[in-house]
Amino acid sequence: MSDDSCGVYIMSDISNNVLYIGMSTQLPERIQQHKDKLVAGFTSKYNCTKLVYFESTPDRETALFREKQLKGWNRAKKAELIAKMNPRWEDLFEKLIGLVVGS
């Protein structure tokens, strides 16, 4: 993932009961804001501090389209998508950082 690519991501709480879908042009920084609860709103209210899914997109328009698409899915379909990338629903933040640093 390059610094200028956009990303779509899914955050969850520690028990994986709550899901939040978002997009950002600076994915690592945005995830860190969620983790530090610097983003007022849904993620801080429901303790969504665990990155369980992410994907890169080539531009902002594609990211917005994908974000809306994922938000329209039911819980089961979102869980299936997460499980394909992250079967144990672990926090993928370190993996994301590794991809960014390695690019």
What keyword list fits this structure?
103 residues, alpha+beta, GIY-YIG endonuclease, 3-stranded antiparallel sheet, 45% helix, globular
Radius of gyration: 13 Å
The CATH architecture: 3-Layer(aba) Sandwich
* H/E element sequence: EEHHEHHH
Structural class: alpha+beta
The level of helicity is 40-55%
Task: List strands and helices in order, with pairings.
Layout: E1 6-12, E2 19-24, H1 27-35, H2 42-45, E3 50-57, H3 60-71, H4 75-85, H5 93-102
Antiparallel strand pairs: 1-2, 1-3
Describe this entry's structure for a reader:
The protein has 103 residues and is α+β, with helices and mostly antiparallel strands. It has one domain: GIY-YIG endonuclease. Helix content is 45%, strand content 20%. It contains 5 helices and 3 strands. It has a 3-stranded antiparallel sheet, with helices on both faces. A hairpin with a 6-residue loop joins strand 1 and strand 2. It is globular, with a radius of gyration of 13 Å. The mean pLDDT is 92.
Write a concise synopsis of the structure shown.
The protein is of the alpha+beta class. Helix content is 45%, strand content 20%.
